[in-house]
Amino acid sequence: IIVGSGPAGHTAAIYAARANLEPVLFEGMMAGGVAPGGQLTTTTEVENFPGFPEGITGMELTDKLREQSERFGTEIITETITRVDLSSRPFKLWREGAETDADEPDTCDALIVATGATAKRLGIAGEDQYWQRGMSACAVCDGAAPIFRNKPLVVIGGGDSACEEATFLTKYASHVYIAVRRDAFRASQIMARRAINHPKITVLWNTHVIEAKGNGSALTHVVLQDANTKETRDLDVSGLFYAIGHTPNTAFLGGQLETDETGYLVVKPGLSLTNVAGVFAAGDVQDKTYRQAITAAGSGCMAALDAEKYLENLAAEEHERASGKL
C-alpha cells in the first residue's frame, strides 16, 4: 500500500506496478488541506521538471503521473488514511470515517508513506484570492515565473529559509523585501548577514504583513503593520512568498515511526527504510532540505525498489520456513 499521491507516491506506484506488486495507492481526499496530488496541485507553472521543455502546470503533471500509475495497474482509492497499526504484520490501515477497531482495516505487508509536507500559511486577508496569483510558499518552484521577473517581491519569515529564499529571488526580482515580525533574524549569523548585506534586499524589522491586495487577477501590493506602533502602510509588490516552514503530514501515524525534532520521518541514510521493517518513506515527508517534485519522484523510486527487495526476502524466508529450512 502507498499512502500519498504526489510525485513520490505515484513514482513508487509505477515502479511497484511494473514489478507486479499490485500496489494500492490511497490518494486522499483533501488530505493536508490540498487536493489529491499534494503541494504540486497548488503550483501553476512547473518549468524545472525534466521532459517538459515548454513547462507544464502542476495539475497537468499530477494528472499525467496518475494516468501512468493506472496504466500499469495501480489501484487508486480516493480516500484518506487516518489511522494505522504498525505493531505487527500485516500492517493495518483505517480509512477516514471507519477508524474504530470494529471497522475492517486495509492490510499490507509493505507500506510506503509518501504523504508530503504542507507549507504553513498565515491566512491573511486576500490570501485565498491571490494564492498562486502572486502568492506562493516555494521560491525555488515559482520564483522564475514571468509574473515575478523584474518585479518587487516580499518574503515573510525570519529564519534560514526566509534568508535563502530572499537571496534566491534576487536572481529574478527587481528588489526583495523580507518582513520579519521581530527586531532580529532567527536565522544563522552567516545567512542573516548575507541577506542584510545584499544590495537587492531590504529587511523590514518588526513588520507584519496583514493583507494581500490586487486587481482581482494578480497581486499588486500588501498591507504592512508595524508590530510596535500598529501603524499600517502599503507596499507595492508583485509577489509574496511564505518562508515560515512546513508541517510534515504524519499525524495519522500516531507516533509509530521515528521522526526528527521537526516531525519529518527519519530514514536510513541513502535508503527509504524507516525504523519499522517493511515501512518505507518517500518524498517531502522525509525531506526538509530539497522539497522538489523531481527529488520526491526519485525517492519514490527508491522506496518502491526497497519495498520490492523487502517483499522478496520476506517471501524467501516464508518459503524456507514452510520447507523446514528455518
Helix- and strand-based class?
alpha/beta
| Biggest sheet overview | 5 strands, parallel
How many E-type strands?
Answer: 20
Helix content percent band: 25-40%
Show unreliable segments.
none
**What overall form do the CA principal axes indicate?**
elongated
Q: N-to-C SSE series? A: EHEEEHEEEEEEHEHEHEHEEEEEEEH
Q: How many angstroms does the end-to-end distance come to? A: 28 Å
Task: Write the SSE topology.
Layout: E1 2-3, H1 7-18, E2 24-26, E3 45-46, E4 56-57, H2 58-71, E5 75-77, E6 81-85, E7 91-95, E8 106-108, E9 111-113, E10 117-119, H3 127-130, E11 135-136, H4 139-142, E12 152-156, H5 160-169, E13 175-179, H6 189-197, E14 201-204, E15 207-214, E16 219-226, E17 232-236, E18 239-242, E19 246-248, E20 279-281, H7 293-322
Parallel strand pairs: 1-2, 1-9, 2-5, 9-20, 11-18, 12-13, 12-18, 13-14
Antiparallel strand pairs: 3-4, 6-7, 7-8, 10-19, 15-16, 16-17
Helix pairs in contact: 1-2, 1-7, 5-6
What can be said about this structure in brief?
This protein has helices at residues 7-18, 58-71, 127-130, 139-142, 160-169, 189-197, 293-322, and strands spanning 2-3, 24-26, 45-46, 56-57, 75-77, 81-85, 91-95, 106-108, 111-113, 117-119, 135-136, 152-156, 175-179, 201-204, 207-214, 219-226, 232-236, 239-242, 246-248, 279-281.
